[in-house]
Amino acid sequence: MRRIGLLSCLCVYLSASVWAAKGPKELEYAAVLLDGKKIGHVIHTRKVEGDQVRTSDEMNLNISRAGVTLKISTTETSIETLKGKPVGFEALQNITGMKQTAIGTINADGKVEVTITSMGIPQKKVIDWPEGAVMAEGMRLLEMDKTLVKGSSYNTRVFSPSLLSAIDASVEVGGKADVDLFGRVVRLTEIKVIMKTADSDIPTTSYVDENLDALKTIMPLMGMNMELIACEKEFALSEDDVVDFLDRMFVQCPAPLKDLSQDSGLVYTLAPKKDAKLKIPADDTQAVKELADGKIQLTVKPAKAAAKVKFPYSGKDSQLIETLKPSTYLQSDLEVIRDLAKQAVGNEKDAAAAAKKIELFVNKYITQKDLSIGYATAGEVAAGRQGDCTEHAVLTAAMCRAAGIPARVAVGLVYVDSFADREHVFGGHAWAQANIGGKWINLDATRVPRENPAGYIMLGMGNGDPQDFFGMVNTLGCFTIESVEPAK
């Protein structure tokens, strides 16, 4: 494993979680802690401007990976009427200098006109407003309408400008608890929220005062606790601690894979830590079987690409057709991406051979291979020629789509014999997959050739958008590998 670049995806999840209960204060500060160490801060503002309310949550994080610090800043702004009706929104992501903005206007017909700008290049799209979804002010009014009575519950949908989609959530009011706020103990009401994603349910717990101000919020992250704790401005903006995420992204392998035959694939037994509930996806590269005590038997046998498959894809499979379309991070319609795909593929007529040529092309095209990029779009990678595994993955998938080959981005773990002072471990990784002849085939432009083809454990897949990988929050760092052996 040469590069790891998944943390910035998870940080977008965190920014989507900041909408926990907020009172009507115009300005609030909170410190962000990871397992007790301060790694950033949140600034919450609310302003009434005429007949509209403008609410913003700005999150700033400093994350270290192998001594390289990532500065991640996300700001979500919702614009609503005084009655909580959505009017518009703004979202800004700045990951170590890689900026992306999204500005949306909600029309009377329920259509949302959005302009997404990355690398200074605007993309316009129209989406439907999710039925019943609210934003910050609508959520605040909904919470005010509910009573803080233990056992009461309700469901809601909260629109996230960063995700351009709504998160379904269930809210349950708990009892009173004495909560430590940096040495100041306050009696608050516990509010449990379950955010429902396509892959899993993600719990958060907030502690609110009588004005519904969330003074403390706890969220799970890779087997750790992320906390947002209300505090004074001076402490919120004070210097952050140095916290390296790499240790949380490694899983020890019980045996060196190079000593095992991988001809028929490998069988892993995964055991959850503590109360974790594992949810591992299955596809053409891995089969999943649930065992007792929450364990998972995972058989990894990468599919082989069929020969003489023509492209561009002309079938009628609706799911494959979707994986040919450009997306926010896989901008396969950009001229630079189309040109790179033509350079890589040339006159090749076979889809499997074309995909391999794209994989090798990306491996050589990205010349500066380092951890300094947080998470870039394919267009940004094409321009900068720099990045780690995520940048290799999004460019590979985008070029495949531009060539007419269905493709997606996969994330999970990959085996390495050694990394820094560790031996025989799995580490966080991202790679591309192409669908050839009806089978999903792994393409990993960071590892050409692949020494251990069965040394991949996929935890999620999608269009390269950060929200596709939220399910990893409850999986990455939450299990051990008890055994590994050749498949029979």
Descriptive overview:
- The protein has 488 residues and is α+β, with helices and mostly antiparallel strands.
- The protein folds into 2 domains: 7-244, no CATH class; 250-486, C8orf32 fold.
- The protein has helices at residues 7-16, 136-145, 233-236, 318-322, 335-345, 351-365, 378-384, 389-403, and strands spanning 27-34, 37-49, 52-65, 68-81, 86-95, 98-106, 111-118, 121-128, 153-160, 165-181, 184-196, 201-208, 214-221, 224-230, 250-252, 266-272, 286-290, 296-300, 368-369, 386-387, 407-419, 422-436, 439-443, 456-462, 479-486.
- A hairpin with a 2-residue loop joins strand 13 and strand 14.
- The longest helix is centred in the last third of the chain and has 15 residues, at 351-365.
- Mean pLDDT is 88; it is low at 1-9.
List the total number of helices.
8
**If strands are numbered along the chain, what order do they take across the biggest sheet?**
8-7-6-5-4-3-2-1-14-13-12-11-10-9
Point out poorly predicted stretches. Answer: 1-9
Distance between the termini: 27 Å
> Radius of gyration over alpha carbons?
23 Å
Helix content: 10-25%
Largest sheet: 14 strands, antiparallel
Strand content: 35-45%
Shape: globular
Count of distinct strands:
25
Mean pLDDT: 88
In total, how many domains does the architecture comprise? 2
From the helix content, strand content and strand pairing, which structural class follows?
A: alpha+beta
